[in-house]
Amino acid sequence: MDAGLNRDKSAGTGPVAAGVNDAARAANRMPVDSGLNHPHLDDIHVIEEPVADQSPSGKSPLRRCIVTREILDKTAMIRFVLDPNGQVVPDLRQRLPGRGLWVKAEPAALAQAIKANAFAKAARQSTRVPADMTARIAGLLRQDVSHLLGLARKSGDLTAGFEKVERALRAGHVALLIEASDAAEDGRTKLARLAGSDVEIWSPLSAAELAAALGRETAVHVALKPSGIAERLLLACRRLAAFAAADMPVSGKRS
User: Fold this and answer.
1) N or C: which terminus of the chain has fewer CB atoms within 10 Å of its end residue's CB?
2) Quick one: DSSP state of residue 146?
3) Do 134-254 and 15-130 have the same topology in CATH?
4) Nearest C-alpha neighbor of 234 from the set 252, 249, 218, 220
5) Where are the domains of the chain?
6) Where does the chain show beta strands of DSSP type E?
7) Tens digits of residue pLDDT in 98-145
8) CA 16 to chain centre
9) How far apart, in whole angstroms, are the C-alpha atoms of residue 65 and residue 74?
10) Mean pLDDT of 52-70
11) Are 38 and 52 in contact (CB under 8 A)?
């Protein structure tokens, strides 16, 4: 889940910039259709620049979904680009070169984008969407979860091992609890009872995948203290749960 967190400072000054800012303000005053079946998909024109300077949270520039027409945080969307052959490529870390095509980070929105040929209409050229796009996104999200777990370990924001996690939960120092999807039920149940109302519990990876992400021989129970990495990991877990292929064991509980 590496969206930019700083205010976009690329806007210039003068008549041209003022016109762009006026247009952005006018767009924000227009009613937004949050439905997926928008009657004017042919009129969609996506721009790479933010629709407004910042989101209400002050964390991220905004983008407009090519399907729902909603104006949302970049963190609530998935960016896509086209490769030289016109194939649609998901860019979860928002780093790939090329014009961005933004879709609300929900499987239903992606399905509607594919059905309505919204990528081609927004890009104004022929495009090709891989048949396994949802599974590809799930795979990238699984990689993102592993990457963020590794960052949390290096930053000291992560605790692993049943007894250490239990102590952290009792002390109220946990914002996110990660359990291996194949962990024993008794251990998961005991820790779940200790988790407070503000702790979300997710099982995005197997024990072997967790161990690999953390550079350990074994890893089953992992706790993260409140931090920016924990917030990013939580978002990645939520998205993975939504986009995971049917045969991938992903479960979650919000306390």
Assistant:
1) C
2) H
3) no
4) 252
5) 15-130, 134-254
6) 62-64, 71-73, 77-82, 88-91, 101-104, 158-160, 176-179, 200-203, 221-224, 251-254
7) 999 999 999 999 999 999 999 999 999 999 999 999 999 999 999 999
8) 33
9) 10
10) 75
11) no
- State both tokens at 221: 């129970």
Amino acid at 25: R
Note whether 79 and 91 are within 8 A (CB).
yes
Q: Which two tokens stand for residue 196?
A: 């407070």
In angstroms, the Cα distances linking 205 to 141, 183, 195, 210, 227 are: 11, 10, 19, 6, 21
Residue found under tokens 């988790």: 195
* Topology, domain 134-254: 60s Ribosomal Protein L30; Chain: A; (3.30.1330)
Average pLDDT, the chain: 79
Which string of b and e fits 97-118 if b means at least 16 CB within 10 Å? eeebbbbbbbeebbebbbebeb
Q: 0.85 cut: is pTM over it?
A: no
Cα–Cα distance, 26 to 20 (Å, whole number): 10
